[in-house]
Please model this.
Amino acid sequence: MVLLDLAESEASTVLTLDKDFWQIAVQRRVPLERSGVVLFRFHPATPGNLDPLVRVLVAAKGTWAGCISIITADGFQMLAARKS
Model:
C-alpha cells in the first residue's frame, strides 16, 4: 500500500481509525521497520472521545516504529511488526 510505503520511507507513524487499514498493515509482506501504525478504537470517534486516546499516545513517549498498535480507552497494546 502506497501510504505504508511512504510512511516507511519517511520513518513516520500512521494514525488511523480504520480497522481494515490496520489489518492491511498487520498482513503486510514487508514488515515495518522505520514506521508504525496506531489504530484508535473508540465509538463514536468524536474529537471529545478521541482526545484521551491521543493523550495516551503522547504520554507513552516511546517509539512506535516497527510496531502495529491499538489504543483504546483501557490503554494500548503494541505488536511487533518485524519478522523474527
The chain has one domain: 2-80. Residues 47-60 form the longest helix (14 residues). The first strand starts at residue 13 and ends at 16.
